[in-house]
């Protein structure tokens, strides 16, 4: 005999909260306008489907029932847009989701010269007309207006219908009153328990309904006082049935806040049916609440729990818009993947899906008889013919000449690779480490550094098209370039610089030319050793220290003090592990929120005059770690920011390595991690566009805002346009065909 009572100021039932909208684009052919809406859907994180004919549009609509349909009305020769709209709305009325009838918002895309009446469009069922404009931001703004207007209104309507159905079916007695205590609704369960019919109660004030004498005299005033403050009241209440009997009920009275309402507590706005079940006076409800109280009173809290509790407390006295915004914040904080963007909008782009899936997951585990053996072999020793009495003073002139501009971003690593017979890491390492005084910092002879560089390079696989010592040398070069930037120098200590150079040198040592997903799927020994988690990155870091410390001839750490070695070691390991792509968005987001935004706020409030605050942001131990992670991440995947010829060269190399992996997966019967990287069908321009869009742009925007890298951003823009140009010509190759 439980009784749930709801007091309204204005009832606003809304199930809409950051939902991923389904959008159907109906365009007979691809053009800049359709591309504009596709881009806008992706930016707004909406799921987007494309249909070319009325038949395929209807079929797609019946399968997914889209929230928004955009129909191209510019070319009547392709199809009758108004007839299609009528059919869609007819189908919409025939579709029932969870017992709720739904409708769809439909937009008409008209030519930019047409000034005809909108009445035919309204009669056909269109909600809105969009005049032809392929500008991407115009498309994006139109989608946002639709989302917050017609589409949101329909979500509210659906939610209202759904909640009304829930009230009707509920076994709990539910009574809804207006703010001035007039009964507006009682559900069938209330009628059954209390013996009244709806017609006997609707429109009457609560005081007109007989009350039980068993309630305490001041109980009603206590309840009303709670409700006026916007707070929920829960307790034992004696109700009087129509036949005069009194029954004891465990009652929850909740003020429901709507738009324009006075109450401010939104946290209890939804109906917790489980907490109002018919328990009578058996005490089980009180036990539940006391156990929850113990949990919330525990002193062992995670930081995220403290944040949620602080927000909950702030909501108590917040104005309505702030309370609603904090509700949305809490929804985000309660998710488990705080930094990973959802890939739902990428369904139409297999290149992005495959690339992201291949780089950011640990593979699809499937037992097979094909086990990929790796890591059982011993680290490589230096072949005798490679051991030369090399020092900075006797580098061959031809090699020295190729390294003359090694401090420039446009330095050509491919030329050095050719000049050194695929041993660029040793030569470039000697010069860069000398420039940064690494030997002096480590108190090690140049001969030890030379031996170390040679043995590290010997453990890179020259047979890999991409992950070889040339890539390591390229990342070392980028790292050295970033370390010379003023903001970076302000943030890092000498030990950080040395750690960054060493981490760049070893970050892919003994890379097998296969992704983590491949190794996990193949059941490799490395995957088993590292529990399918950051397999390669863990191996690179561990092997680097094994190689370094096993032989005094190449142990560059031999002469440094123990505590300094521990600090250096931890920094190197952290940076190497930061190159693993599953944590990409976490590292970038933390960098932006902990460093970029506070620095921007200081600049807005008076430039860089507040040097102490700037320094405290740049040099805090937590932020130094974030800077080092961001530095090596940007250095590791900086290929799209290189001069165009180098960008094309690296794109060809990574594609070939992925092609080889796909070939081997097919040969061994393993799951194909990235199906689009089939050498017979792959579009290299599309894969580069996806990589730049998904991983590169935001990261380098953030890094440029910190380190000031206009030349890199110009290269990135030029390279993106280059790949876009090839893709628009439907070319799959690295370069256009000869004229």
Automatic annotation (TrEMBL):
Bias (Low complexity): 274-284
Positions of transmembrane segments: none
GO biological process: cAMP catabolic process; cellular response to epidermal growth factor stimulus; positive regulation of ERK1 and ERK2 cascade; regulation of DNA-templated transcription; signal transduction
Binding note for cofactor: Binds 2 divalent metal cations per subunit. Site 1 may preferentially bind zinc ions, while site 2 has a preference for magnesium and/or manganese ions.
Cofactors: a divalent metal cation
Top-level EC class as recorded in UniProt: hydrolase
EC numbers on record: 3.1.4.-
Record pathway: Purine metabolism; 3',5'-cyclic AMP degradation; AMP from 3',5'-cyclic AMP: step 1/1
Leader peptide range in chain numbering: 1-28
PROSITE patterns, alphabetized: PAS (PS50112), PDEASE_I_1 (PS00126), PDEASE_I_2 (PS51845)
Keywords attached to this entry: cAMP, Hydrolase, Metal-binding, Phosphoprotein, Signal
Domain of life: Eukaryota
Location of the region described as Disordered in the Swiss-Prot/TrEMBL record: 250-293
Active site: 467 (proton donor)
Role played: Hydrolyzes the second messenger cAMP, which is a key regulator of many important physiological processes. May be involved in maintaining basal levels of the cyclic nucleotide and/or in the cAMP regulation of germ cell development. Binding to RAF1 reduces RAF1 'Ser-259' inhibitory-phosphorylation and stimulates RAF1-dependent EGF-activated ERK-signaling. Protects against cell death induced by hydrogen peroxide and staurosporine.
PANTHER family: CYCLIC NUCLEOTIDE PHOSPHODIESTERASE (PTHR11347)
Assembly notes: Interacts with RAF1. The interaction promotes RAF1 activity.
Family, per entry: Belongs to the cyclic nucleotide phosphodiesterase family. PDE8 subfamily.
Full protein name: Phosphodiesterase
Organism: Sparus aurata
Gene designation per UniProt: PDE8A
């Amino acid at each position: 005999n439980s009784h749930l009572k709801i007091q309204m100021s204005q009832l606003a039932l809304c199930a809409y909260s950051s939902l991923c909208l389904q959008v159907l684009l109906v365009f007979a052919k691809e053009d800049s306008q359709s591309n504009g809406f596709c881009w806008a859907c992706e930016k707004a994180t909406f799921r987007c489907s494309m249909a070319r004919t009325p038949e395929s549009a209807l079929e797609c609509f019946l399968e997914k029932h889209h929230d928004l349909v955009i129909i191209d009305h510019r070319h009547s020769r392709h199809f009758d847009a108004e007839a299609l709209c009528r059919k869609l709305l007819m189908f919409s009325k025939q579709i029932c989701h969870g017992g709720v009838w739904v409708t769809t918002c439909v937009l008409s895309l008209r030519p930019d010269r047409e000034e005809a009446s909108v009445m035919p469009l309204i009669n056909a069922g269109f909600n809105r007309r969009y005049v032809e404009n392929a500008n991407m931001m115009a498309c994006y703004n139109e989608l946002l207006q639709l989302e917050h207007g017609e589409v949101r209104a329909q979500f509210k309507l659906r939610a209202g219908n759904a909640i009304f159905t829930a009230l009707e079916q509920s076994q709990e007695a539910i009574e809804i009153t207006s703010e001035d205590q007039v009964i507006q609704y009682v559900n069938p369960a209330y009628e059954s328990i209390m013996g009244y019919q709806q017609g006997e109660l609707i429109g009457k004030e609560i005081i007109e309904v007989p009350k039980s004498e068993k309630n305490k005299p001041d109980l009603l005033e206590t309840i009303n006082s709670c409700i006026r403050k916007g707070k929920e009241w829960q307790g034992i209440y004696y109700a009087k049935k129509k036949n005069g009997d009194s029954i004891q009920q465990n009652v929850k009275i909740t003020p429901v806040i709507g738009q324009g309402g006075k109450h401010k507590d939104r946290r209890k706005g939804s109906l917790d049916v489980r907490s109002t079940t018919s328990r009578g006076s058996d005490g089980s409800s009180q036990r539940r609440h006391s156990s929850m109280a113990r949990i919330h009173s525990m002193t062992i809290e995670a930081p995220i729990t403290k944040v949620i509790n602080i927000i909950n407390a702030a909501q108590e006295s917040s104005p309505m818009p702030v309370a609603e915004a904090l509700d949305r914040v809490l929804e985000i904080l309660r998710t488990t993947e705080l930094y990973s963007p959802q890939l739902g909008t990428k369904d139409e782009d297999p290149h992005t899906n495959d690339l992201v899936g291949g780089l950011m997951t640990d593979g699809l585990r499937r037992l097979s008889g094909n086990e990929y053996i790796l890591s059982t072999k011993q680290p490589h020793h230096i072949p005798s013919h490679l051991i030369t009495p090399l020092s900075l003073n006797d580098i061959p002139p031809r090699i020295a000449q190729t390294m003359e501009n090694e401090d420039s971003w446009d330095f050509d690593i491919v030329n050095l690779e050719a000049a050194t017979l695929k041993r660029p890491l040793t030569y470039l390492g000697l010069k860069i480490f000398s420039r940064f005084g690494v030997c002096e910092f480590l108190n090690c002879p140049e001969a030890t550094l030379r031996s170390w560089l040679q043995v590290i390079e010997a453990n890179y696989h020259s047979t890999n098209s991409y992950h070889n010592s040339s890539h390591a040398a390229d990342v070392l070069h980028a790292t050295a370039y970033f370390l010379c930037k003023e903001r970076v120098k302000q943030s890092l200590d000498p030990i950080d610089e040395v750690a960054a150079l060493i981490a760049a040198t070893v970050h892919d040592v003994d890379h097998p030319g296969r992704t983590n997903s491949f190794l996990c799927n193949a059941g490799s020994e490395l995957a088993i050793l590292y529990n399918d988690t950051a397999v390669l990155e863990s191996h690179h870091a561990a092997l680097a220290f094994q190689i370094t410390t096993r032989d005094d001839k190449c142990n560059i750490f031999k002469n440094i003090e123990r505590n300094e070695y521990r600090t250096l070691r931890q920094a190197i390991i952290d940076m190497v592990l930061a190159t693993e792509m599953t944590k990409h968005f976490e590292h970038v987001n933390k960098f932006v929120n902990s460093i970029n935004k506070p620095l921007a706020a200081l600049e807005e409030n008076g430039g860089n005059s507040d040097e102490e605050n700037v320094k405290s942001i740049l040099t805090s131990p937590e932020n130094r770690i974030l800077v080092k992670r961001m530095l090596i991440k940007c250095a590791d995947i900086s290929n799209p920011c290189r001069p165009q010829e180098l960008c094309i060269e690296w794109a060809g190399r990574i594609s070939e390595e992925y092609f080889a992996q796909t070939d081997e997966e097919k040969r061994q019967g393993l799951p194909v991690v990235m199906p689009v990287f089939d050498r017979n069908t792959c579009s290299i321009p599309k894969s580069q566009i996806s990589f730049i869009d998904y991983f590169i742009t935001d990261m380098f925007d953030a890094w440029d805002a910190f380190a000031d890298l206009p030349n890199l951003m110009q290269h990135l823009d030029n390279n993106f346009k280059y790949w876009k140009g090839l893709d628009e010509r439907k070319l799959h190759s690295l370069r256009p065909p000869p004229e």
